[in-house]
Amino acid sequence: MDLLNRNALIFGGASGIGWATAKALMDLGAQVVIADVSTPSENSAALYIPCDVCDETQVSEAVRRATETKPLDWLVYSTGIQHYGSVVSTAVDEYDLVQAINARGAFLACHSAIPVMRNGGAIVLVSSVQALACQEGVAAYAASKGTLEALTRAMAVDHAKDNIRVNAVLPGTVDTPMVRSSAERFSGADGLEQTLQQWGEDHPLGRVARADEIANLITFLLSEKASFITGASYRADGGLLAQLAVRL
Ligand code: BMA
Q: Are residues 11 and 129 both part of a single domain?
């Protein structure tokens, strides 16, 4: 692909889908900057910038440092937490935290980054199938992922004139630290691996995704191969949302 020497900034790039995307972009020759609260678990050629996405100053500083030597080509927002509860059982500050990390941080990142993106740049926000249909007890998370989808469309429309494309990816269940921590919480006697396997069986493809399978879609959407795609949402969900939960 055409990613040689491109400058990519990945919020949430230290693990999970963000890390898989960082690796995929580096393999293709891009220069990658990872902004994350945690340090990347593996060594790489990526520049790591500590960043709490709840903090406006830290986000703008991450963008400033990532663009010190050249403008930004690609921005990926892959920062997320999942808290469980209905609107009634979710505490107000818990709701605010989920929104801050999953959605407001994407606004902050794009707010700072778009003005320093080069003509022809591209943004991908990592949303979720839960923006479109959701399981029980994920009110705050689902709302935050829906926000990302609407933000994607709004930015695509506003910045088409700057030749900046903006798209969202909507993964189903992916083997990431976030999902593993959920599986641990709900696994009971079955154990984590067994729970992940059961969650995978809910997807027509019969398994959860690997993070690199989502990274492949993100990489495509960033590349020139997706040059006429903007304001779109792509599901990578193993068929999850194609299937009605009604048995024959
Ligand atoms: C993801 C997370 C996972 C969930 C999956 C499919 O965004 O919410 O915990 O399994 O969606 O619903």
A: yes
